[in-house]
Amino acid sequence: MSVEDEDFEERAESSNLDDAMNEPAETLIGSDKTSADYYFDSYSHFGIHEEMLKDTVRTKTYQDVIYQNTFLFKNKIVLDVGAGTGILSLFCAKAGAKHVYAVECSLMADMAKEIVQANGFSDVITVLKGKVEDIVLPVSHVDIIVSEWMGYFLLFENMLDTVLYARDKWLIKDGIVLPDRASLYLTAIEDAEYKEDRIEFWNNVYGFDMSCIKKQSMMEPLVDTVDQNQIVTNCKLLKTMDISKMSSGDASFTAPFKLLAEHDDYIHALVAYFDVAFTKCHKMTGFSTGPKSRATHWKQTVLYLEEVLTICKGEALVGSMTVAPNTTNPRDVDIMLKYSLNGQRCQVSRTQHYKMR
User: Fold this and answer.
1) Quick count: other Cβ atoms within 10 Å of Cβ 24?
2) How far apart are CA 340 and CA 347, in angstroms?
3) What is the pTM of this model?
4) Of the residues 157, 190, 220, 315, which is catalytic?
5) Taking burial as the number of CB atoms within 10 A of a residue's CB, which of 29, 100, 122, 240 is the most buried?
6) Annotated catalytic, 193?
C-alpha cells in the first residue's frame, strides 16, 4: 500500500468519505484545484485530526513542553502555524500567553474558532483562516512560533517551508521556534514475509504476470510500523535540521551512511524515521518515531530493496541517500538511494529511486 493510498483509506474510514465518493469529482475536489489545495482540503476532515490528537506521544509532548515551561510563554505573542483544531493554541493560552494567532488554511479553521469560544479563550486566541503566506497578522512580530509540521519521513507534505517563511517574516530576533530540532535516521531490516506479500505478489496474480506493477510498487515507500526485532543493523543519523537557523534549501540534501550488521541475516529494506527535540526548554524534551520507541501516527518509512542482501555480522552496507522536494509538487518527496555491500556472501552495488506521493 502506498503512502497516499494508506492515508486516503484511513481518512475515508475515519471521516465517512465513502459516501462522498459517490459525488462528482468537482464536488469533492473541484476541477480547478491543485494538489496543494487537495492537501488543505484533506485536513478539513475531522478523522485525521482525531488520529493526531489521539497520538499521545505527539500531543502529550507538546502539552508537557508548554505547561512545564510557562516562563517561555508568559505574556508572549505566539503564532501557531497549521493550527488544526487549535489544540496547541489552547495549550499556549492556558500557559499564560498574551495572545495567540492560530493560522489554519483548511475548513477546520471554522471549527477551531468554535472550540476557542467554547473554552473561553476568544479574548486570547485569534483564529485566522488562510495560508500563512497570504494572511496579514494584526501584529508586526511574534515572540514564539509553535507548529506540528512534521510529515511521514519527516518531510512528506513539506510544511516545513511554511514554518520557515513565518519565522523569517514575523519572529523577533532571538525568538523561539518549537520544536527547534529534527533529525532523520536510517536502519536496515529483514522483512521477507511482508516483501513477499507486497512486492513479489505481482509476479503471479491469479496466474498472470503483472510484474510491470512490481517495478512501480518498489518505488513507493511504505508507511508502516516496523517490529524492532526485524532490525539487522545499527541506526545511522542522516540529517539534523535546526529549525531556528536553517534555510528552506537545507531540506534538500545528500547524506552518506554506513550500516553495520549486528548479526548474520538478510536485508530486504531500509527504514527511515525521525526524532524531534525542544531544546529551548528548562529541560530538553522530545520524542522519537523509531521502531524501538512507542508507536506514533507517523510510524516508520520502509524502502524496499530490489534484491535480498545476505549480510554477516560486522559487515557494512554503505551508501548515500539524496532527498529533495518533487519539482512538480513540492509537498511530495523524491528519494535516491545508492548502496553497496562487499561481503562474504553478497556483493552488490545499486541505485534506486523512490517517490513519496
Assistant:
1) 8
2) 7
3) 0.86
4) 157
5) 100
6) no
Cell of 290: 523509531
CA dist., res. 68 & res. 18, Å (int): 42
Contacts of 218 (CB under 8 A, 6+ apart): 199, 304, 306, 352
pLDDT band at 157 (very low <50, low <70, confident <90, very high): confident
- Which triple of cell numbers denotes residue 157? 507534505
Q: Which amino acid is at 86?
A: G
Cell of 14: 475515519
C-alpha cell at 4: 497516499
**Active-site position among 23, 114, 148, 220:** 148
Q: For Cα atoms 132, 251, 270, give the angle at the middle one, nearest 5 degrees.
A: 125
Q: 157 an active-site residue?
A: yes
